[in-house]
Specification:
single chain; 432 residues; alpha/beta; Aspartate Aminotransferase, domain 1; Aspartate Aminotransferase, domain 2; 2 domains; globular; binds pyridoxal-5'-phosphate
Length: 432
Amino acid sequence: MSTPPLPPADHHTSQTYADRFYDELTDELARLDPDGLLRRLRIVSSAGPVVTTDDGKQLLNFTSNSYLGLNEHPAMKAAAVSAVNELGTGAGASLLVSGRLPIHARAERAFAEFKHAQAALLLPSGYTANLAAMTALAGQGDLICLDKLCHASLIDAARTSGAEVRTYPHLKTDKLERLLQKHHAAAACGLALPAIQPSEIIIHNSAITRTPRRFIVTDSVFSMDGDTADLPALCDLADEYNAVMVVDEAHATGLLGETGAGLCEAQDVTDRVHIVISTASKALGGLGGIITASQPVIDTIVNRARPLIYTTAIPPSQAAVIAQSVNLIKTEPQLRQRVRGLTLRLRSELKSQGWNLIPQGEFITPIVPLVVGEAKDAVALAEHFYNHGILAAPIRPPTVAPGSSRVRLSLRADMPEEHIDRVIDVASRFLV
Ligand SMILES: Cc1ncc(COP(=O)(O)O)c(C=O)c1O
């Protein structure tokens, strides 16, 4: 398809192509507004439990994913400051060139040990870690099966890999099994399903021949629902259908499991999951993505992942923060117990008020979504909270499915009980 030529500048009205381009964008944005779908950036004074917004309003912050409050923990600040003083503010190069300082290696070792993995690898964010893992390990001719509610970064990563991407309905392992069965049967009788035929995989412009791979990919805790995957059932399917098991523990690391290692630990499948992705941006209170896996997996990502090769290593202060957060998760288990207690109390009160809460089952996570339906209803509820001194995020399509818009409340261990009292009271006033 040939590209249409750029329209010429309109000399009569002196409106340039750029002016028309900006007008068009402004119109497109205006069309989002009536449906409650227009997003606006704002400035919030800090990332703590009480914040001031740019209109001068002081609010209790129920939007922070720093579930353990580690982003404000004195030991975390001290680790970051000391790394800045000793090593400066930036790594200066990619991991493969000269950006991997001893503090990066130390953080990787601490994290690998925490996750009971052979090796760990630091990336700039959870988003890039997912992108790096999936694009390095999967490609044309492979099959990636994802839970329909997997985080956007996993979906983007799967699509970018070039593999065939299939989703199964949220938590429906029977549907996943049917999907795997179909592909397996087609492979066994040599039918032309390209996803499972031995094929040439094109990586870095060089073709290599290998057996096609299947991947089962899931969040462990789903970011917008706060519910959890059935990892043992998924691992059983991975065993039966020879699939690689990939789990994104973004919202579980630091919170679930006896040592806080995540849902893999809590559901006793640490040895059965091949690749785990964590982020330092939530309970760990910093920034950075961490992949834990066996050494050949890590070495492959180092050699093939463009989001690692072509980007700068995280600053030494962030590596120090990651190492320190692992230490605190081990030594301060009361933080995860406290946020669990706050969540149980809030959920129970909201349930008795009649709110539509997504069931969490055995594993309690500090994500409490109030599902209201339409985007504009979620915006109205968030405004109600705002007007009563609470910052809470309206979550709308495309982040969630149409008709399931919600306000997502995030809890943190450093919130006093009075903040929970307040949110319970304000929520009750929306219903009357
Ligand atoms: C499940 C999941 N994976 C990955 C990410 C991306 O993490 P990061 O913020 O570190 O890029 C998020 C963040 O929202 C997430 O919820």
